[in-house]
Amino acid sequence: MKDVIIWGGAGQARVLREALPSSDFQVIAVFDNRSVPSPFSDVPIYLGQEGFHSWQASRTGAGQVHACVAIGGSRGSDRLFLLEWLQQQGMQPLTVIHPRAFVASDAKIGKGAQILAMSAVCSNATLGCAVIVNTSASIDHDCVIGDGVHIGPGANLAGEVRVDEYAFIGAGAVVLPRLKIGRSAIVGAGAVVIRDVAADEVVVGNPATGLRR
Question: 113 and 83 in contact (C-beta within 8 Å)?
Answer without folding.
Answer: no
